[in-house]
Design goal:
- It comes from Fundulus heteroclitus.
- Residues 1-23 are annotated as: Disordered.
- Residues 1-10 have a biased composition (Polar residues).
- InterPro entries: EF-hand-dom_pair, S100_Ca-bd_sub.
- This protein is mostly helical.
- Helix content is 49%, strand content 3%.
- The protein contains eight helices and two strands; from the N terminus they run H-H-H-H-E-H-H-H-E-H.
- The chain has a two-stranded antiparallel ribbon.
Amino acid sequence: MRQIKAQSGRTPPALSRKRSGPSPLLAFIPRPLAAGRRSALMAIKYSELELAINTMVTEFHKAADDAPTMNTTQFQTFVSKQMPLIAKTVETEEGLGQLLQQMGIKNGENISFTDFWKLINKQAVEVFNNTDKQQDVKCSCLLQ
């Protein structure tokens, strides 16, 4: 199997390891390529943004033991390892409960990638609003 290198020289993790199912990156590839034109896929150079998306998908599923959802213990470990800016929030049961509530997770429910994406949206808006930027740029991103 030939390794695909991104512009940064890194191989996207979801494309470098063997998976039993389809690669999560296939959702971001135009349909004709996902349908079977693998040789064209090999020529694609991934941007830093695409690699970041791939990393989020890959790390989520790795933390969920390749399942479509993760339980709260897996989620707490995942956030502690991968999201240091909010890791302190989930150190306590109360903090974890508040974060899950903000994501719309009810007590005892597992966390899906869609739920995780709500957290990413919230964090992206927060980070954007707290960084230096042009005065006329404002973020009002809403996840649908």
